[in-house]
C-alpha cells in the first residue's frame, strides 16, 4: 500500500512525533507499506518566533496538490493539525477523498499555557479538523475516552513502539554525578512541566537532557540541576541507560514515546497518573505513577531494571506499523484516491 503522510513536524525537530513517523516508515517496509511524507521542506516559513529547529510552513495550494498527485497514494494520513495538515485536509475535501488523522499533541493545552486563549476554543477547532476524517487514530485507551467525552467521533487505536536495538542498557554513559541520578529528557519548554521535577527535594542528582526555550531560565533558577543539552542516537541511549530513574513530569503529552525508550534502556519511570503514563506503566512493576511525584521517584528506585527491559521488548514498532496499516486497509478499496499500483523500492520523503 502506498501511503502519504502529511506532517508539520519533521527533521531537524527532535520530538516524539518525528521519531514516531520515521520509525513507522521504516517498519512499514516489511509489511508492504510504502510511506512517503509531505513535510514543511521546500515551503516558505511563517514569520513567527520559534524555538530552534521548528519550521512553521506557509504551504501553497498548487504545490500541495502537485506533491500529493506526484506521490499517487492509495491512502492519505494527516499527522498534525498545522498549516500542512490543514492544506492537505482542504485538498482531500475538495476532491471528496477519504483521509485519516492522528491526535498526537495537546495543542489546546499548549496554547493555553502561552496565551489567554482557553483550551475549550482549541478543542472546538480540533473537533472541526478531525471531524472530516474517516478515522482519528489515538495511542491510548485513556486518550480515546477523554476525546470521546469532548465530542470527538470515529476514534481508532494506533499504539506506539520502541527500537530495542538502538535503546539498550548495554553501554551506559559514565556520569560522574552523585547517586541516584533522576533524569528527564525532551524539549525544555513550559508545557513539559519540568519545574514539577526540578523543584523536588530528591537525593542525588537531577539531570535534564534536551534543549528548548526554557533551558537558560531553568538552569539559572535551579543551579543544582545538571543540564546536558540535546543528545541523539547512541549518545542519548547511553545517557538514558545511565539514569537510575527516568522522570516524566508532563501533564499534556498524549503518549510519551520517551517512556518506552527509557524502559528499553532498563530505566524505570516516575510520572503523574495522566494519559500516557497511566497506559504505559499502569500496574506493571516498571515504574511508579503518583500525584506526589517525589514519592513516585523514590518508589521507582526499587523497580527491577530487567523487568523494564523485558516490558519494552514486547512493544515493537513493527506491531505499531501493523496496526496503523490495518486502520488504513479498513478503508480499502472503495475509498482509494488512485488505482493501486506497485512502486518498487524504499519509501521516499516528499518535499
Largest sheet: 7 strands, parallel
User: Based on the structure given, which CATH architecture of the largest domain is correct?
Assistant: 3-Layer(aba) Sandwich
As for the number of domains, it is 2
Strand content: 5-15%
Overall SS class: alpha/beta
Q: Tell me the radius of gyration.
A: 20 Å
Give, in spatial order, the strands making up the sheet with the most strands.
6-5-4-3-1-2-13
> Which sequence of SSEs, written as H and E, runs from N to C?
EHEHEHEHHEHEEHEHEHEHEHEHHHE
In angstroms, what separates the terminal alpha carbons? 20 Å
Residue-averaged pLDDT = 91
State the helix count: 14
Protein described:
The chain has 351 residues and is of the alpha/beta class. The protein folds into two domains: 2-161 and 316-350, Rossmann fold; 181-313, Glycogen Phosphorylase B (Rossmann fold, 3-Layer(aba) Sandwich). Helix content is 37%, strand content 14%. The chain has 14 helices and 13 strands. The chain has a seven-stranded parallel beta sheet with strand order 6-5-4-3-1-2-13, sandwiched between helices. The model is unreliable at 49-53 and 339-351 (pLDDT under 50).
